[in-house]
C-alpha cells in the first residue's frame, strides 16, 4: 500500500494529491472545501508529521564510531540488517590489515582514508570512510584535495545529476592548526568550484570544535552564539570558509554536553531537500559525545534500480517419479519425425521435456540469507521489526524499552550464530577446503596469496612465514592428539574377542612401484609428505 501511494504521489503533498483526485472525479464532483472539518484536520495533521510527502530519497547514516577494530563482527551484522543507502564514518581506526569486505560484505562500494604517515604523525586512531550501496554508481571525486588531512569526497550518481559527499576528521591536536584549517578550506573551495550549479553537496565532519556554542531554534537553522562561544583564529577561519563556499551547518542534535562536535554542512542546492533525524537504532554502540545522525535526502525523480536476475534450480532429490513417468508416457513423440528441420526438432523436444520436468520436479529451496540464521533468529528479527514499526508510529518510551530489549536479544543471538558459522567455516579447512577458500576469497579484494599476512603483532612476508603463521592460527582445527596404550585397553575392555576378522592384504614391491608410476608429476606432496618425484 505504501509503495503504491509512493509511486502515485511521486513527491507531491497528500492534500494537493487528494485535491486533484477529487477535482478530476466526474462521478464525485465534491469540492475539497466542502469536506468535513475532521477530514481537513486529518489532512493537515498528515502534512505536519515531519512534512511527509512520500517522495523518493536516499537514507544516509553518519556516526563517529571511536574505532572498529574490536567491533568488526557486530558492525558487519548491523550493516547486514540495515537499509541505508550511504554510510559515513569517522574515527574508524582501520588500517590495511582489515578489508572493507569484513565490515560491509559485498553490498557497498567502500572508500577509505585510513590514518597514515601522510595525514598524521600518529600511528593509531583517526580514519574516515564513505560506503555507498552498489545500487548506485559512485566514484572518488576527480578534484585534487589535500592528502595531509583525513578527508574524502565521493560522487554518487542520482537521477538527472550527482550527489557530492565529503567527510573529514580533524583530531583535537589539529583543531586550532591554521595550516590544517586552510588546507581543508582550500579543498572545499576546489570541490565547490568544480560542481555544476545544480549539484547538491553534503559534508560530514568531526571538527572537535568544543568551544563553539550552537543555538538550535525550533524550525530554523542552527547558528553560533558568539557571546557564549570560544572562537580562536583558526576556528573563525573555518566558519568563514564554510560561508564563503556556500555551506550551511544543519545538524541540531546536541551531545550530552549540549555541544556539536559532529557537523553536517549542505550547499544551497541540497539545503531545501534534506532532513536530519536521530536514528532509532545505531549501527554500533554510541559514544556520549558523538550521537548517531541520519539524513534523508529527497529526490524529486524516482530512482530506478536494475532488477536482479533470479535463476531457479530444480531439486531432483524430491522428484515425483510416478508423475514424471505418467507425463512422459502420454506425449506423442511422432511430432519429431514430422519436423523437417533438425534444429527446430531439437528445440521443440527440449521445450517439451523442460515443461514435463518442471511439473514433476519441485524447485530447490532458496538458500538461507544470511547463511548462519535459523528459525529462532528469524523469529526474533520479525519481532524486532514489528516493535520498531510500532515505536516509529507511537514514539512511546514504553515501546522504546521493549525495542531495546528485543534488539539486544536479537543482536546477541545473531552474533552467537555468526561466530558458530565462522567456526564451522574454519573446520572446513580440513573437511571441505574448497568451501573454506571460497569464503576467504569472498572477504578479500583478490584471489591468491596476499603480499603480507598478519596474526596479532606478527607479520609474514615470505611463503615459509605465511605457512607458519597460517598453521599456528588454524592449529585448533586439526586434532593431533593420540591415544595411549592404557586408553586403548580401557576402550576395548567390553569388546568381545575375535569380533573383527582382518585379512591383511599382501603388498609386494612391484605393486608399490606400479602405484608410484601412476602418480601425476603436477601434483604436490600430500599429507604423507611424499614428494611427487620418486
The beta-strand count equals 16
Measured as a percent range, the helix fraction is 25-40%
Question: CATH first level of the largest domain: which class?
Answer: Alpha Beta
Using the alpha-carbon principal axes, give the shape: extended
- Ranges where pLDDT stays below 50 over 5 or more residues in a row are 1-15, 21-43, 45-55
**Radius of gyration, in angstroms, nearest whole number:** 32 Å
Mean pLDDT: 81
CATH topology category name of the largest domain: Deoxyribonuclease I, Chain A
Written overview of the protein:
With 534 residues, the chain is α+β, with helices and mostly antiparallel strands. It has five domains: 2-48, no CATH class; 57-299, Deoxyribonuclease I, Chain A (4-Layer Sandwich), CATH 3.60.10; 319-360; 375-442, no CATH class; 453-517, no CATH class. The chain has 15 helices and 16 strands. The chain has helices at residues 2-9, 14-24, 37-48, 72-81, 100-104, 178-194, 233-244, 321-329, 342-360, 375-394, 397-431, 433-442, 463-473, 485-491, 509-517; strands at 56-64, 86-90, 108-113, 128-133, 138-140, 150-158, 161-169, 201-206, 214-215, 223-224, 247-249, 262-267, 274-277, 293-299, 453-455, 458-460. Helix 11 (397-431) packs across helix 12 (433-442).
Amino acid at each position: 500500500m505504501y509503495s503504491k501511494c509512493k509511486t502515485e504521489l511521486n513527491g507531491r503533498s497528500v492534500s494537493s494529491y487528494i485535491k486533484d483526485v477529487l477535482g478530476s472525479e466526474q462521478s464525485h464532483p465534491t469540492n475539497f472545501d466542502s469536506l468535513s472539518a475532521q477530514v481537513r484536520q486529518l489532512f493537515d495533521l498528515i502534512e505536519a508529521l515531519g512534512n511527509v510527502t512520500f517522495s523518493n530519497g536516499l537514507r544516509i547514516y553518519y556516526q563517529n564510531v571511536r574505532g572498529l577494530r574490536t567491533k568488526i563482527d557486530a558492525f558487519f551484522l548491523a550493516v547486514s540488517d540495515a537499509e541505508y543507502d550511504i554510510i559515513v564514518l569517522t574515527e574508524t581506526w582501520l588500517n590495511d590489515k582489515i578489508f572493507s569486505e569484513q565490515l560491509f560484505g559485498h553490498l557497498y562500494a567502500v572508500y577509505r582514508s585510513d590514518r597514515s604517515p601522510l595525514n598524521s604523525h600518529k600511528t593509531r586512531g583517526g580514519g574516515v570512510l564513505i560506503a555507498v550501496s552498489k545500487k548506485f554508481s559512485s566514484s572518488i571525486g576527480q578534484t585534487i584535495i589535500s592528502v595531509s588531512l583525513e578527508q574524502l569526497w565521493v560522487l554518487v550518481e542520482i537521477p538527472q545529476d550527482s550527489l557530492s559527499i565529503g567527510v573529514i576528521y580533524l583530531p583535537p591536536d589539529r583543531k586550532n592548526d591554521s595550516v590544517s584549517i586552510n588546507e581543508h578550506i582550500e579543498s572545499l573551495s576546489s570541490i565547490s568550484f568544480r560542481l555544476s550549479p545544480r549539484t547538491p553537496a553534503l559534508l560530514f565532519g568531526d571538527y572537535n570544535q568544543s568551544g563553539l556554542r550552537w543555538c538550535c531554534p525550533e524550525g530554523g537553522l542552527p547558528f553560533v552564539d558568539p557571546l557564549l562561544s570560544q572562537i580562536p583564529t583558526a576556528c573563525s577561519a573555518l566558519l568563514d570558509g564554510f560561508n564563503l563556499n556556500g555551506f550551511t551547518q544543519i545538524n541540531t542534535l546536541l551531545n550530552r554536553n549540549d555541544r556539536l562536535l559532529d557537523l553536517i554542512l549542505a550547499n544551497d542546492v541540497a539545503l531545501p531537500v534534506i532532513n536530519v533525524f536521530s536514528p532509532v537504532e545505531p549501527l554500533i554502540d554510541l559514544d556520549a559525545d558523538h550521537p548517531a545522525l541520519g539524513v534523508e535526502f529527497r529526490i524529486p525523480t524516482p530512482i530506478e534500480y536494475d532488477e536482479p536476475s533470479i535463476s531457479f534450480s530444480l531439486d531432483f532429490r524430491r522428484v515425483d517419479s510416478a508423475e514424471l513417468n505418467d507425463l512422459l508416457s502420454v506425449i506423442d513423440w511422432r511430432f519429431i519425425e514430422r519436423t523437417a528441420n533438425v534444429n527446430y526438432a531439437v528445440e521443440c523436444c527440449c521445450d517439451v521435456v523442460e515443461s514435463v520436468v518442471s511439473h514433476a520436479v519441485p524447485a530447490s529451496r532458496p538458500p538461507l540469507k544470511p547463511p548462519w540464521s535459523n528459525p529462532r533468529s528469524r523469529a526474533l528479527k520479525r519481532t524486532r521489526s514489528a516493535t520498531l514499526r510500532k515505536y516509529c508510529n507511537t514514539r512511546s518510551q514504553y515501546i522504546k524499552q521493549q525495542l531495546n530489549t528485543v534488539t539486544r536479544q536479537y543482536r546477541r543471538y545473531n552474533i552467537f550464530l555468526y561466530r558458530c558459522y565462522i567456526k564451522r567455516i574454519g573446520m572446513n579447512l580440513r573437511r571441505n577446503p574448497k568451501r573454506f577458500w571460497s569464503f576467504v576469497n569472498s572477504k578479500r579484494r583478490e584471489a591468491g596469496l596476499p603480499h603480507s599476512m598478519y596474526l596479532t603483532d606478527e607479520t609474514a612476508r615470505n611463503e615459509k612465514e605465511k605457512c607458519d603463521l597460517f598453521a599456528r592460527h588454524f592449529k585448533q582445527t586439526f586434532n593431533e592428539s593420540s591415544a595411549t596404550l592404557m586408553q586403548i585397553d580401557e576402550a576395548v575392555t567390553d569388546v568381545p574377542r575375535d569380533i573383527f576378522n582382518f585379512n591383511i592384504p599382501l603388498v609386494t614391491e612391484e605393486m608399490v612401484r606400479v602405484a608410484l608410476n601412476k602418480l601425476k608429476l603436477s601434483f604436490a606432496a600430500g599429507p604423507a609428505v611424499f614428494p611427487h618425484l620418486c
